[in-house]
Structure formats: structure tokens, C-alpha cells
Amino acid sequence: MLLELKGLSKAFGSIVVAENINLGIDEGAAVGIIGPNGAGKSSLFNLITGELSPDSGSIHLDGHDITSSPPPARCNAGIGRSYQIPHPFETLTVFENLLVGAVYGNGLTEAQATERCGDILERTGLLEKANRVAGSLSLLERKRLEMARALATEPRILLLDEIAGGLTEHECEELVTAISDIHRSGVTVVWIEHVVHALLAAVHHLFVLNFGSIIAEGDPHTVMNSRDVQEIYMGMSD
Description:
Largest sheet: 6 strands, mixed
Strand order of the largest sheet: 6-7-8-3-9-10
CATH class of the largest domain: Alpha Beta
Number of domains: 2
Helix content: 25-40%
CATH superfamily of the largest domain: P-loop containing nucleotide triphosphate hydrolases
């Protein structure tokens, strides 16, 4: 198992963002996570990447306990992440943004990073934008850059946080294709998303979070059709 969370809990006073979460993700998986606003989805990613420390429980990457490891160490160990709101280095070019990830997140020399970043730009559809200043990119291009910069760290597992939000239908289709290509290249993908139809086109297993707890998991279409998920997540009932 590549990533395993054991009894993971976190609260801010009376607000519980993770409650005794037990979750395992196999290497090579494509996993989706859904849940209403405030369910604890982004907080779960923050716990996995080390931006938050759990109150209890543990996090294991490839069998190694990384619960106390700082974020840079987790990045170097193979955890990459994009953010819901893109935060590029706006005054740097697209290519330079990737170089930062490759050199500081993956420990490559500049020569090694240059070769790797060229390949990633092509895979993510950004090659023609390589010399553009990141601050001038469109929303779709910024989201692609978020993925590309995370890929530059050479992750074994890629955490995507609501990367389809705000995109048109056509842009979502392009994004799904890019994510599917990344997964087929051997990267394990864990994707939080509110644009459910985009998510279902790319993942093979689905977790549902509500009030910091996993309330359902399994085949994505089976989970989405369950009564509990329709009532809690989609606000539907008979």
C-alpha cells in the first residue's frame, strides 16, 4: 500500500475536520474524494502533506511513518500537490515555475531539471506557453501549471484539490484527459472535486467525506447512486 492513514483525527476546538480516518491507497490507483463544503477534504490533504499536524493517528508512505515529517521531506519522499486556488510564481515564466519544483522539490541539478521540465510541459499541454510569464495565464493554464509544477517534483502520489472548478465543459474535458494521461504514466492520483462528472471520468475508486468522517467508499458509480450519498452530499431524498 502506497499511502495509509490510521485513525487520523484533527479538530480546531469544536470543529472536527478529521475523525478517526482509516484510509488506504494502493500504488497506481486513481482515487476520488467528494463531500459537501466543510467536510474536511482540503484539511485531509493538508494533513497528508504536513501543513497540518494530526491530534492523533498516523500517516504512512510506502510503509514508513511520516506523521512527524515536515512538508519538504514529504515532497522529497514522493507526495506532490496542487491547490484549489492556483498560486504560481507570477513574475517567473511557466518553465521557471517548473524548475523551482524540480530543483527544490526533487533535488535535481539545473541540467537534469531542464530536461525533465521540458517533458512535463509537453505532457500537460504547456509547451507553447513555456516562456510566458505565469501571471498572464488563463485559469485553465494556471491549473495546468499547478499540476505541472507538482509533477516536476517527481511525485509517486499526486494530490489534486478541486482543479476543475471554474472551467468550461470543454476545458474540463481537456483537464480529465491530462489527468488520465498522468495516471497512465504510473503516478498514483488522489483527486478532490466538486465537478463530479469530471471526477467520475478519471477515477476508479471513490471516498465520500462528511463532517470529517468517511461515510462511503467503493466503485464511483455505485457510491454516487447510494441513498446516503444522495441525501448527505447531493441533498436528495425520496
